[in-house]
Each structure stands twice: as C-alpha cells, then as structure tokens.
C-alpha cells in the first residue's frame, strides 16, 4: 500500500514537468517525463548568447531541502544525456552562462523516474541492459532504516559477489546495476535486507539471469602457474585500464575487468582513459572534449554502463581559477584522480609557462603540474601549483622534451615544443592528511602539506635521488627513477612502481636492467629511507605501471608498456613479501593500470586511508 501511495505522488507531481522557470533559458526533455528507471533522457538547453555559452545541468531530489548537484559543469554542448536508475521525482536545473557578459539564465523542471517494473510487482526482476554483461535488478520496497544489496553467483563456481548496499525507502523499489559476470553464463541472483551490523535479516528467493555475448575482444591471458582456479583470494577480479588496442590481433582498447582465469566479466565499449575505480560501481575517466577534440580536457565519473554521473571541463575550471585570482591556467586533466576521505576530489593538471633564462638561455615553453581539489559540484577548494613550490631550474632528469602530438605528452599551446619538466603521474592521500605526488621527470616522490584542505602547500619532503632523505644501507642504484603509482601502505612505508629509466636508458645501463616493485620505509623525523622490498619485474617498462598491496600481504604490479606499439605487451605479476612469484599474467596489450578488486563496487582499502591500525600495516576497515 505504501508503494501505491508513493507512486500516486510521483504521478501527481508529473503534472509540473513541463514548467520552465526563471529567466530566458529553456529546458526540453526527450523523451518527456515520466520515464522508467534506466531510460536515457536527452536535455536540450537554450538561452541568449549561445555562441559564447557554457551550459550546466544539475539534478537533485524534488522532495527534499538539498540543492541539486552538478551533473555537467561548463559544457560547450547544450544537448546533454542523463540517466538514473533510482525512482523518484527529480528537480532538473539548467544554467546558461554567457562567457562574454557573465550573465546567467536559468530553466528548471521536474522529472519523474518511475520504477522499471509495473506498480505493485511483488517479486524481484532482473532485466537486460545495453551491456550484455550488466543486469538491472529491481527489488520490491523494503522498510527503512534497513539497507539492501544484491548477491549473485554462477552455480558451481564456489564464489559469490555482492553489490553495494542501498538505503530502503518506503514504497520505492530498489534498482541495482549488477556487474562482474562472464558472458553467456547463467547466474543466480537474490537480494538481502541488512540490519544492524550488516546482518542479513531477509533473503529473497533466487532468480536466474543469463548474460549475453560481449561486443569486444580482449587479449588472451597467458597465466603462470597454469592452475587458474579461484583460490580464495579476497581480490578475485582484475580491473584493467588499457592504453591502445592491438590491431594486428583485433583486440579492442577498452577498459575491462576479468577474473583470475583471464575471462572477461565487465567492460565499457567506448574509448576512454580510465584512471581509477571509485566507490559503489563507479569509476573516474578522462576524455577529449567532444566538440573541440582536444584530449584530456573532460573529467567524468561514470557508472558501470558508462553513463555520466558528474562531469567537468578544463574551461570551467580555468574560469574558476581566474575568479580566484590565479594567473596560471591548466591545459588538461591527466594521470590521476582521487576521492578524498572528506568527500572532495583531487586530480592533476598541466600548467604551461613561457620562461626566460630559467631552463637554458632564451625563452622556452615549460610544462609543470597543478593539483586541484574540488567539492562534489566541482567548485575549487584548494590549489597547489608546482611552479610555486619546486625549483624550475632543475631540468627533467633525462631532458625530456615534448613535441606537438608526441605520444605521452600533454597538450601545450605556447610554442612548437615544450620542456616536460615535472610530468606528475600519481596522487595519493597520506595517513597524516597530506598528499604525495609522483613527479616522474624529477625522479621524486614529493609530500605536499594539504592538511585536509588547511595546508599551505609547502613541500614537506622529496624522496628520491638528490632529495631530502639519507639512504640507509644499500647503494645509490637502489633509488627509483621515473616512478609510477606511489602510495602509503602503512604509516611509514611507501609502495612504488620503479620504471628505472635512469638505470635502463643510460649510456651504460645496469646489467640487471629491469623495472622494479619497491617498498621504502621512511623515518620522517630522522629523514632516512631504507629499501625493504625490491623485486625485479623481468623486463624494462619504459613508461606507465601500477603497484598495489593486496590484503594477503602480497604485491600486485603492472608492467604496462612492454614490446612496441606495433606488438604491445603487458605483464601482471603477484609477488609475496618474500619476493616469490605467486601469479603472472602476460597480455598482448598495453595497460595503463591494473588493480585487483574484491568486486566492481569496492576500492582497495588503502585508497581511503583515514587511519591505519597496527595489524600488518593494513587499514582498520575494508
């Protein structure tokens, strides 16, 4: 009965849907309200000054006091797609900004998202989606304050999976994207209502769902040892962000996930630079601007079907920087995005300057990096500019120079070539509330005083050759160079993928020239550093790479750029704390990053790092 009452309210509010308010802007939805959950709605926004306009689309509940959250920020495109799977009445607000006059026009309407199944359906339903490996599971309403999740398994596998839980709402069926399933396989699904302490208080009857045929082709996985059965590991999925495909073998360059046997369980069939998994079945991606084609200028969080949850652009961020009084502008968004424990978002951007008699005689273009921290509406909260905190007279350690269109170089605009001075490639939160930045072309890992948004950005230390730490034991060859994916794995230990470019591209390279996986133990009081884990990874990876500590205490390393662009290869390696290989997977594609996940809804625990306990250096939560 409560469901019927709530559904009647939805329909009553639907009578307001065509009302535009405030100013001269117009907002047209196609198809019009109401629509079932999972339908993609195209909103067209129009207003005066369209030739110079930026468009914003914000959406939130029409039944509560909270303001709508930004979905699209600073778009040059006035035709924007929006998809929701959660039923409700939504307040949709469109803003048109005339960039010449600064004037804004606003249009607003309400949009009703109905359940994907008929009213009063008493049982759960699993529906196909646009992705043959993703199902839409619809469960009957459950009473608050309980929560619900979906559990699913392929009978006989010996392994089941769960989605993220959702809060129960009176009279509203809950909708879940279910992903992590192999193609052409029958799965059994059921939902669980959770009480205090995540105890299961209700378990539904199971239903069957059979996946379709994947529309992409990925690399065959050559696995050592050959026995690939699930072995009880808490991270049985492999999340892969590819760089390019392999045209020779007909392999597609799409973000995807596999199980430990190399079998495809999820993918997005649109080319995009996937940076990291995020919470609750989402991920961060970086894309080219759809109108200008300039690469790495759009930052988006998308769901498991690739649908935009929130998105911003370089131009919108640069308008904010100007309003805040910063002289520099950013050229792109690149390499890394982090969800911070305070709910804000941090990412790396390129800042180009023309400097005279700084990096050699005369005037040259030089590329540095900026960290931006924004809130959930992409409003800038904190800025760190490498130009203000690092020495620009210290050249890139291998004298890297970018030419227009060169692979691996960010966009630049002030000259025909540019010195690639910093080339930061990873960003991570620290146990004490600061940030570390892997600065590839300085061969340093730099700790920046962020102090959860209250810091002044000063460099607290530089770890690496010619940095601030004295090396304890070992020899100078132990130092890393051109690193990737540095992060804390305990209060005083850092894990890093050491590409070893200094050792491997020197005129007289080390005889054991291989990229390495390393753990460094540092004493920030005594300013000493000791290499406590050092694993040769078999080959030299000139660029990219990732590193992860697993819950078992093992390490997972991605040597993502082996071979050549014509014959690309990557190697994924799991090694124990003793350095012994546990598992190795060879692939015929280049991989930017690879991570082991519990499921497609959870991030590795160390990515949240608000606190560590004393047990094996692992976080005190999963």
From TrEMBL:
SUPFAM superfamilies recorded: NHL repeat (SSF101898)
UniProt keywords, alphabetically: Signal
Molecular function per GO: aryl sulfotransferase activity
Any matching Pfam family: Arylsulfotrans
Signal peptide start and end residues: 1-24
Record InterPro entries: Arylsulfate_ST (IPR053143), Arylsulfotransferase_bact (IPR010262)
PANTHER family named among the record's database cross-references: ASST-DOMAIN-CONTAINING PROTEIN (PTHR35340:SF5), PQQ ENZYME REPEAT PROTEIN-RELATED (PTHR35340)
Name of protein: Arylsulfotransferase N-terminal domain-containing protein
Taxonomy of the source species: Bacteria, Pseudomonadati, Pseudomonadota, Gammaproteobacteria, Chromatiales
